[in-house]
Amino acid sequence: MPAVPRSRDNSLRVKLVALILATISLPAGLFLYQSDVLQGWLVSAASDRILKVADAWVEQESAVVAESQRTLRSVALDTAILGEDHAECLRALHAVIAGRRGMIALHVLQRDGTVLCSTDLSALPPARGWSFLNEVFASHSPLISGYERLPGRRDALLFGGVPLLGRPGRSADRGS
Predict the structure, then answer these.
(1) pLDDT in tens, 132-148
(2) Which long-range contacts (CB under 8 A, 24 or more apart) does 73-76 make?
(3) What is this structure's pTM?
C-alpha cells in the first residue's frame, strides 16, 4: 500500500474533524435553541397559572371580607345582642355563626376588654394591649384586621369588629 503524503493526511483529518463538528454543532445548536424556547414557554405558562391562583385567592378573600362586614353590620343591629340578657345574646351569636361559612367565633366585649358574651373564648386574643380592639371602638363602621395568629393555634385568623351602640342614649362601650 502506497504511503499517503503527510499534507494530504492532515487535509483528510481536517476535513473529518470539520465534518464531525458540523454534524454535532447543528443538533447542539438546535437543542440549545429549543431549550430556550421551551424555557420561555414554561415560564410564561407558570406565570399565567400563578396569576390565576392569585386572582382566585383575592376573589375568595374579598368574598370573606364582604361576608364578614355584612355579618358585623347585622350583629350591630341585633337587639338580642345589644340587650342585657346574656343567654339571649349567646343564642343570637350562635344563630349568626350557624349561617356563616368559615366563621369561628363571635364575641361582645366592653371597651376595657371584658367579655360580655362569646361563642368560643379560645378564639379570642388577649384583649388587653390588643390594638385592633382600640381601633374598633374608635371606628364608626365594621373593621377587618389582617391575619393574626393566636397563641396555641396553627392557623392565622382574620378578625373583624364593629362598635355596638346599644340602646339610644348608651355610649359605644361594647364591640363585637
Answers:
(1) 777 877 877 777 777 66
(2) 73/142, 73/162, 75/106, 75/162, 75/164, 75/176, 76/142, 76/162, 76/163, 76/164, 76/165, 76/176
(3) 0.55
